[in-house]
Amino acid sequence: xxYQLTEIERFxxxxxxxxxxxSQEFKMCAHRCACGxxxxxxxxxDNQNYRITVGAKGVTLRPSIxxxxxxxxxxxITDGGVEWMPTWSAEQVAAxxxxxxxxxxxxxARKATWSKRIKxxxxxxxxxxxxx
Length: 132
What we know:
Layout: E1 4-7, E2 19-23, E3 28-32, E4 40-44, E5 51-55, E6 58-67, E7 73-78, E8 81-84, H1 90-131
Parallel strand pairs: 1-2
Antiparallel strand pairs: 2-3, 3-4, 5-6, 6-7, 7-8
């Protein structure tokens, strides 16, 4: 199985095998599972989740894809090809999901703190202008 990147505005009704669809607007990608089970895998593409790069040999998607709910496939898409990885145990899947949740929670907590700091700074600045 090889994948080619197709950039789209809207996802098609039919996801074709061997195509990695990417919507920059929605920051999402979708493809059919590499094992051939037919499952459509949709993944977020941003700084906190998956990254897509395109090189001379083809598309690369990182980190690995684990289809733990359907077929237990575990693979990377590298230079358009599939690199198979060992299947994870239920404990590994649970630990991976917990680590991913913690990473996201930390990211959004930091982002919220930064937003609060900006709001406080703006309120202070506005107060200063009103006094003067």
